[in-house]
Amino acid sequence: MSQSSRMERELKFAGVDHHDLRERLKSLEAEPQGPRRLEDNWVFDRDSELVDTGSILRLRVDRSGNWITFKGPASYEGSVKVRSEIETPVNDIDAMRGILDALGYRQIYRYQKYREEWLLGSIVISLDHTPIGDFVELEGDGCEAVAKRFGLAPEDAERRNYLRLYADYRRENEDVPEDMIFKT
Fold first, then answer.
1. Is residue 181 part of a domain?
2. 0.85 cut: is pTM over it?
3. Cβ proximity of 122 and 142 under 8 Å
4. What pLDDT, in 10s, does the model give residues 125-149?
5. Nearest Cα to Cα of residue 58 among 81, 73, 40, 84
6. Distance from the CA of 151 to the CA of which of 30, 47, 91, 164 falls in 20 to 30 A?
7. Cβ atoms of residues 118 and 36 within 8 Å
8. What is the Cα–Cα distance from 124 to 128, expressed in whole angstroms?
9. How many domains does the chain have?
10. What is the mean pLDDT of residues 13-25?
11. CB–CB of 83/74 below 8 Å?
């Protein structure tokens, strides 16, 4: 079982037309990284100690398996969000939940998204479809240049994570579920 620790460098944009961007990616010979997949994510915290520092502890289930991820507080280099990320696969999701519970961590939020990933050089481009709309994430060194290539202004990048985006969305739409999940 391998662990990955790295610095995440990311730009996120809201409301980008996925169809148009997908066509541009094809024309640039970007490499699709498999079919679109559903990600189910659970965020954990203990007495708001992580949320208050801008950190995230997350369990994720997708077609590639189960993962636990810790993301440290974000800083910015220009418009690019930079944060440490440690991630490792988890064989038994229920056992991992039990460990988190024993340590005092409780699930505070759940969110889902359909993600389609492309690779353009060293940049990972994720087309995310969520219950609150479509987003595009560009991740890697040089993501600002790629954003500009697609006509996206780095200074317009979304700084909020999905937890904050949905909290703001709920303030404006009181009839939506507590968690950002697709209706079944």
1. no
2. yes
3. yes
4. 999 999 999 999 999 999 999 999 9
5. 40
6. 164
7. no
8. 12
9. 1
10. 96
11. yes
Residue 118 has a CB neighbour count (10 Å cut-off) of 19
Tokens read off for 137: 């994430």
> Which tokens hold the place of 57?
């502890």
Per-residue pLDDT tens over the stretch 77-117: 999 999 999 999 999 999 999 999 999 999 999 999 999 99
For residue 180, tell me if it sits in a domain.
Answer: no
Instruction: Mention every residue, 6+ apart, whose C-beta is less than 8 A from residue 115.
Output: 36, 37, 39, 62, 126, 127, 128, 129
- Kindly state whether residue 29 falls inside one of the protein's structural domains: yes
Neighbours of 154 (CB within 10 A): 17
**144 three-class SS:** helix
Instruction: Give the span between the Cα atoms of 179 and 166, in whole angstroms.
Output: 8
| Separation between Cα atoms, residue 62 and residue 69, nearest integer Å | 13
Site of tokens 């809201």: 14
